[in-house]
Fold this sequence. Notes:
Layout: H1 2-15, E1 26-30, E2 33-35, E3 41-47, E4 54-61, E5 74-82, E6 89-90, E7 93-94, E8 109-114, E9 126-133, E10 142-149, E11 156-163, E12 166-167, E13 172-176, E14 191-194, E15 200-204, E16 208-215, E17 219-222, E18 229-231, E19 236-238, E20 241-242, E21 244-245, E22 248-256, E23 259-263, E24 268-273, E25 277-282, E26 288-293, E27 297-300, E28 314-315, E29 319-322, E30 328-332, E31 337-345, E32 355-360, E33 366-371, E34 377-382, E35 392-396, E36 405-409, E37 425-427, E38 430-434, E39 437-445, E40 448-449, E41 454-461, E42 464-471, E43 477-482, E44 486-491, H2 500-504, E45 509-510, E46 515-518, E47 521-522, E48 525-526, E49 528-529, E50 533-540, E51 551-555, E52 561-565, E53 571-576, E54 579-585, H3 587-592, E55 601-605, E56 609-611, E57 614-615, E58 626-627, E59 635-636, E60 641-644, E61 647-648, E62 655-657, E63 668-670, E64 675-678, E65 684-693, E66 699-710, E67 719-720, E68 728-729, E69 734-737, E70 740-741, E71 748-751, E72 762-764, E73 769-772, E74 778-787, E75 793-803, E76 810-817, E77 820-826, ...
Parallel strand pairs: 2-10, 11-19, 11-20, 22-30, 31-37, 31-38, 39-47, 39-48, 50-56, 50-57, 59-66, 68-75
Antiparallel strand pairs: 1-3, 3-8, 4-5, 4-9, 6-7, 9-10, 11-12, 11-15, 13-14, 13-16, 16-18, 17-21, 17-25, 22-23, 22-26, 24-25, 24-27, 27-29, 28-33, 31-34, 32-33, 32-35, 36-38, 36-42, 39-40, 39-43, 41-42, 41-44, 44-46, 45-49, 50-53, 51-52, 51-54, 54-55, 58-61, 60-64, 62-65, 63-64, 65-66, 67-70, ...
Amino acid sequence: xxxxxxxxxxxxxxxxxxxxxxxxxxxxxxxxxxxxxxxxxxxxxxxxxxxxxxxxxxxxxxxxxxxxxxxxxxxxxxxxxxxxxxxxxxxxxxxxxxxxxxxxxxxxxxxxxxxxxxxxxxxxxxxxxxxxxxxxxxxxxxxxxxxxxxxxxxxxxxxxxxxxxxxxxxxxxxxxxxxxxxxxxxxxxxxxxxxxxxxxxxxxxxxxxxxxxxxxxxxxxxxxxxxxxxxxxxxxxxxxxxxxxxxxxxxxxxxxxxxxxxxxxxxxxxxxxxxxxxxxxxxxxxxxxxxxxxxxxxxxxxxxxxxxxxxxxxxxxxxxxxxxxxxxxxxxxxxxxxxxxxxxxxxxxxxxxxxxxxxxxxxxxxxxxxxxxxxxxxxxxxxxxxxxxxxxxxxxxxxxxxxxxxxxxxxxxxxxxxxxxxxxxxxxxxxxxxxxxxxxxxxxxxxxxxxxxxxxxxxxxxxxxxxxxxxxxxxxxxxxxxxxxxxxxxxxxxxxxxxxxxxxxxxxxxxxxxxxxxxxxxxxxxxxxxxxxxxxxxxxxxxxxxxxxxxxxxxxxxxxxxxxxxxxxxxxxxxxxxxxxxxxxxxxxxxxxxxxxxxxxxxxxxxxxxxxxxxxxxxxxxxxxxxxxxxxxxxxxxxxxxxxxxxxxxxxxxxxxxxxxxxxxxxxxxxxxxxxxxxxxxxxxxxxxxxxxxxxxxxxxxxxxxxxxxxxxxxxxxxxxxxxxxxxxxxxxxxxxxxxxxxxxxxxxxxxxxxxxxxxxxxxxxxxxxxxxxxxxxxxxxxxxxxxxxxxxxxxxxxxxxxxxxxxxxxxxxxxxxxxxxxxxxxxxxxxxxxxxxxxxxxxxxxxxxxxxxxxxxxxxxxxxxxxxxxxxxxxxxxx
Length: 880
């Protein structure tokens, strides 16, 4: 027994040399639970790697929520990360859509993913399993859970997913926007969830009109039969969703276009038929896919969302194949050039979740999208070197971006696009302005309303070019949400499903001229037959207000004349033959209305549309209204505030108001007489709009009136008081409190955006406590942020040095009981210990008996149940 004890302690001395190299690889996801409306980033951190090591990250949608990756679970994302290597760098710019190592610490990888990156699959509410593995076999796979919850909207859809009246468990349920004019399939889903094991689902959403649909492997969904439902505020709509069993399949592989041996894993692969049927699939870890379909022709591969993390570029069109086709190869090119930049409003604030779309405009072969992140930054990889004959366009997609904004566009988009060379990164910044006005109108031809035609408007505001698009409804009406400015409004005559060429046929009509509208107003279009002409226009007063029911005459001097009256928008129109025409107004009527008579306007018509506008003058017309208050003096929190807004021109009396969509500082209100008054209850800088209307119904609006409310007394700035943070030791509990002064307590603590995490095992609470038990040695740098009650923030970089010395374990109470050796191991909690045995002290092949670890206990009773001889040697290693 004495010999045994001696060898036990000798073995412990030998094992001490292993303590520094046996630290286990750790894998953390922060945050590990988010809402499907979360607009931030997901941080992945891997520690204790071999320097320069590569790992694989796989993300599975755990359909049955059993916590195990099953054969039926979808591989929705996969990518590699290499220690010390950024994801994708083009022209010196890092494409942050492609995950890479963002920190400079060797043996550690920190990768950041934009949750709202444009791949809607990542936002489906459900349970996910994220598996970290080593291609070189350096460590065993580690699986972490990641959860996407549904935002708690007050209204929802419920029901069951069925097929032939039989429940379909674990189907994916997606909520699509309502059908769009000129489009024949669903758009991008706005929400998604997974039905439970009984096929029941609940999906919550804002009020609106939606098309709910269910999808699953070996099932087909029918978009043409899907319900179109309007979800009211606080309502619950119960509807069952049907699936059709697949009887055939389509299979193939998604690969790198320059190397077919490289498959692209975790890519969503949809298939759609011309009859409205839709089926889905995902590529596996080798890029292979199989989609269950029904007989017929299917279009496969028209989706770019899953390619974003790989840094590849999609095609504008999919491939048509027959059901039962196998061996399809989809080669996608890797991005060799890039658009990048920011999306910010006119005050410099970032605008998030904006879809930046790009495509080659001549050959119409490639397309790729990128979404602005929490800082408003975006990255879109494209194919470089296509040449001047096939330039690229880049713009904001109005279909998948916040609808209350208008977005600028680069000048080259109006001139056919721009060429990008191989390896070029071109910065294009977008400016967003709030759409506070509307342009409306009607489109008809020979008295018949035209539905589904595209209407576009362009304006230059503060040197930026903006455009907005819409389509006419079933009655030929359209609405464009615009900002204040001069807008050129026109119809889409050529190209696309919403063009007049497609609706009326090429050569059967005359494309009408564009019309200019200032701020808000009406632009009606009468599409003329090919052999006719049109004279149209507006009659307005000096304030650009319409003058209604005015008689308008046309006369060609040879007996052909006609008359009409202006409508409620001051609009008139004539269909006339070719030749010279004079257009005039009824002077007697104008005089009775208080306007001066205007002369005849002459114009020539030759199978075209000519706009002739009239601006009337009054002998006693007041000057136009002008709001003279461009800025407001500061106020003080808790002290009465009063300020009278000033206006000139127009016809008194004036009526002041604040639009419903705009909010003044809490505690203040605007009276009809223009007095802004009250006692503010919150400090900060506030922006709101004011509107003044005179007795003649003329209206002027001042957008973004700024008012700063100061604290009483002024608060000192928020400052973090800690100078430095104490060090820690692996395996030893740690705790230190952060402190702050200034601002308005209480303070809310968090990691600053983009910061690395504290040392593994430590967390930062919202109360500012850094606590936990360090699990890995080293010096860790991170940035903390303190926000006071008014959301005033400050941040500071700290470091914590963690000593990696693991306390040496001890052995006690060795004994031989019942033919086996037994001993008591005392160490530290949450630490791996490996017990090994040999019958020969000089042997090199010691046998492992146990590997033990307990996050709570630090004492282990170890026994060798296989002891058959009187002399056996044992040693304990720290770590596996």
